# Entry
Amino acid sequence: MELIMSILAGVLFTAGVYNLLQKQMLRIIIGTALISHGAHLFILTMGELKTGAPPILDYDIEHYADPLPQALILTSIVISFGVTSLLLVLAYRASKENGTDNMEKLRGNEND
Amino acid sequence: MLFAVFLPVLLAIFIPFFSKWKEKIHTGYFVLLAPLAVFIYFVPHVGNDFSPVSQSYNWIPSLNIGLDFYLDGLSLLFVLLISGIGTLVTFYSIFYLHKSERLDQFYVYLLLFMTAMFGVVLSDNVFVLYSFWELTSISSFLLIGYWNYREGSRYGALKSMLITVFGGLSMLGGFILLSIITETTSIQAMMEQADVILSSEYFGLILALVLLGAFTKSAQFPFHIWLPDAMEAPTPVSAYLHSATMVKAGIFLVARFTPIFSGSDWFFVFVSGIGILTLVWGSYMAVRQTDLKGILAFSTISQLGMIMSMLGFGTSVAIFAAVFHILNHATFKGSLFMIAGIVDHETGTRDIRRLGGLATLMPISATLAFFGTFSMAGVPLPFLNGFYSKEMFFDASLEIHESSIAFANVLAQAIPYLAVFGSIFTFVYSMYLVFGTFMGEKKLDQLKMKPHEAPIGMLVSPIILVLGVVIIGIFPNLVNSTFLAHTAEAIYGQPMKAKHVEFWHGWITPLYMSLIVVGVGAVLAFTRKSWNSIYSFFPGKLSFNKVYDFLVDQSEKASAKITNLYMTGSLRLYMALILVAILVCSFGVLWITDGFAFDTTGLAEITVHEILIALTMAVAAICTIFTRNKIAAILILGVVGYGLALLFVVYRAPDLALTQLVVETITVALFLLCFYHLPNLRERTEKASQKLINIVISVAFGTLMTVVAISAHSTKLFDKISDYFLETSYKLGGGDNVVNVILVDMRGIDTLFEIVVLGIAAFAIYGLIKLRNKKEAE
Amino acid sequence: MISNLAALPIVIPLIAGVLAALFHKKLKIVRVYAQVLTLINTGVVAYILFYVHQNGSVILESGDWMAPFGIVLVADMLSMTLVLTTNIVAIACIFYAPQSLSQKQEEFYFYTFYFLLISGVSGAFITGDLFNLFVFFEVLLMASYGLIVLGGEKVQLRESMKYVLINLFSSMLFVTTIAFLYSVVGTVNMAQIAERVGEVEQTGILTTIGILLFFVFGTKAALFPLYYWLPRPYIAPNPVISALFGALLTKVGIYSLLRVFSLIFVHERDVTHEFFIWIAALTLIFGSIGALSTNNIKLVVAYNIIPAVGFMLVGIGVYNSTGFSGTVYYLVHDMIIKAALFLLVGAIAYLAGTSDLRKIRGLIHHYPLLGWMFFISAFVLAGIPPFSGFVGKLVLLQGAMEADRIIIAIIGLGSSLLILLSVIRIFVRGFWGEKDESITPNRNAARGFIMPVVFLLFFSVILGVGAEWFYPSIESIGDYLMNPENYIESILKE
# Structure
């Protein structure tokens, strides 16, 4: 199953990167969202999948899932959420201000 | 010696105060104190029984950089030249620079330069030497740019600095290598390890790097080009820096390292070869000039070439002659520069075509100029010091050691002829200089002012220098054993008998050479006009100035071209380049280190519902690429997010699943909110090639991640630290939910700052929404 | 030595930043408050550095969870030296800010972002935990996002998009890489990672993971070929913000490289460190070329960040004690001079009304002190003695030559010349020349701009002339980095 999850995360990265290489802001941001999903999936996979119960202690359970990756993912999810929200508002403002949502038209020149 | 070196800088600190009274008393009088004091301090060292003195002061001992001063014959000659000429030049400048000029700046730069120069010639530590070396470049830059409202000044200043700093940096490279090989930073200590240096595999590089420093500073071909442009500086500066002292720093450096380098035949090839070439080129170019200071600049270049080539010969005669000529050149060239300054000052021009017949109007200056130029030309008269050193040069050029390098022997054969050739032109421009300015018909109508003799104060310095010319000329042995012999000895590296100099020593080859020079030179000089076409034809547009200008120009234009190639402002290009770099390097390293691993033991079993979730997510992810409806795209993204939440449930991560659900919901809402007002998704309109590139990059990147993930998963080499968390979560953390305990306790800092991140994001978003520029607010 | 001291440089600015948000509209108060707090924090940091110097590293196991399980904060000489330098830069910036920022920008939480940036940067220097490093990266990045968009100008928004996106991508790559590393060695504590990687001689996939990590930090540090995002976004915001970015952000990247590739991935140097030398060479060359390519004085300074980073990578690549010492010395030097230069060109652009060099001339007649400060900065930057750049460059070149890396040393020397040309032409064209009579000098503003720069240049001079006061400590950092077992033992202890 880890193999499949690794491949799935790889697919998420692929789709994410492909979107990242587009011109339109919305697509690009969707790309970043996909990449962060992929990253979180990788963290989860790098712990061991399904080797035990949820890491909530109970007397009669021997094996638990690895709790550390979960904690890390949680932190990462929250941070990505913050960044994505900022990025969304930024993209909105940038496109309004510059009159386009096409990143290829937002190149600029050296003296501004 | 420490005090002597830093005295000028200390004085410079007070210049701003002195300059407040500049209306009453010219700031130059205060400045005079510094070089004079240093001169008086060092003069007593002159004498038969001189022996080297060294003094050390700590600076950065942990890097072996100390203010180690070493006074031997070589540095004594230079210190006296710098302080002596410095005194005269400062005195001269008092009359040359009007009180309305920014005297404070001028003298601060000049004092800075003196310190730098004293430091260069007295330092025994290579890095301290380098530090002072760069300081001379900087102060020279400031002095050339003194009248920086002139385009020419700015150009000349930048040019001189770039070329000399270039040389300085290269020299630094050489010094570092030397210090690593010999494990010392002291030049004297390096000399003791000359054989270690000569046999080092880096010797060739060291030689090239250090000589590059010397050649650029001493304006050797083809780096001479900065010197003529440096003539934009006020004339006292030209007389001081660009003829008597700074340009001789390169000579000094070569002389200083002669005991180490002269063991190699390549030293002869480079130093003498470049030197003699510079001599010929400089004297030929001088003939073509029309600006008095231009003639003197090329003349300086050629004379420096002559001294340089003598150092390369390496024989005792040559070294003595080199030392002798350093002194002589300083006297006659210094006086000539000052005369040129006087002519400029009194007539308002330095263009020799507009000058003539000034001898009757400025008799003293003219007389001085005659002495100076005739000495420079090497006219065989018993009261001109230039003749002696010139003849010793011819003498030395005939006695060059055999060498193991074939080219060196060819060069040695050619040198006497080149020496005569160069000297003929030296004779020609010398005559042109003095006769063109002071004899012939007067052209007073072409001058801005009515010329008359300069004030006596201005004449004092050149008179003293010309007296030097004559005294050394009449008593050439006056300075030999007390002074120059020590200098030559320091360069030669072993005891050397003082050479007795005589005016007449029979009908020998050097005399014939001198006579040829005078004879042919006289003919060329007095038929100069008929050769003009040749002078203007060659080298014509072929000039190293063009190379410099081209390089500097291209440094900006080519840089702009290269940089604009990839710094286009296109995010897509940037991302693609970064991704390609990551891909190439990571796959490369994976390949080289054979990092791929694949191990299927201990994997979790595959279940249908997981496959379904995974498939859905994969399809949804890919669909985001193809959909053209923004709402649909956002919702499909939501599918991936919720799918991930489901996976979290499946893989026993309830907290994550909850968080992911909440976050995903809010994110989708935010997406919709932000992009409601924006245009719909357009069709992706890129070219097929662009599309292909994107596909290749993204697929490759996904593959890279998957491959590394599988390998990483297959090489679990250690136990995870998580077991500890499971064990202690309740006991020490007081919580059953291990993930929560980790978040709030074991890795509490992470969580604290994760909240900080969210907080900052909130402030930033608030600012983004609220703080708009006025235009939009209206 | 276990002590809470290690947390103070992170906690003080954190609290200061949060409190600053409470009275963000009362500018008079918040300015003085920020200045005082910055000074206090600097004092505390200086004390900790002194303490560490006397007593050895201070290690804080947060929440009393013993290493490697909890997050450790490690205040060693390296991290504290950099934190102190950060705070020195911060002092200059916080006194410069009121002249430079608009009232609106100050009100919209400049001071909060500023303090949290300092907190994040200090945290990144101090933490001994790889994932925690990621979190601090995010803190400083998020603060930098807040700062870069502050003001909401068209250009700012445009450039911040690129800045945020590329940094976001590299952050995601960072967490993923941490996950890979965790899978192999089962820990995120840097000391333990180092120990475990050492035990298996960095076999298999580990080197590839190391290279991925190199790309993560290399993107932050702006190495070739990853620096595209840097120049233009850096000049988009206010100069004081550019100065903070230029002085601090890329340096966190290079610090991380220094830490990771002196501590953890040091067993396959033929692959990794050899590779760094090449990257360093290209960074030096293309960075200097970039600095020459433009007439925008702010952009010239921004490009100049790149070759400096290349220089520091040389020290990591040659992997000897001298090289490490050189990198650290250069790091300290570069933080200070980059801040000074950004503040200077900010002042020039403000006073001349343009940042286009072709439109500036003769400024020195109006602002002599500004001119001379720029002049000195140019030589500090190019590594001309007796300033700080020289000592750093000298030690780096010695390190390179000791390791027989002659070519990279020569490239370094050559790039010094290009760097000098790139900035001295601003002096020659912008400051020299005829007086521009159309400018009415604003000496009051100029003074406010110049004093912080004088403050910074004072350190550049001291670090050069008084190198003996600093170099021995930095040399010991070099030795310390060459012997990672010291670091590992001080944290894991058993």
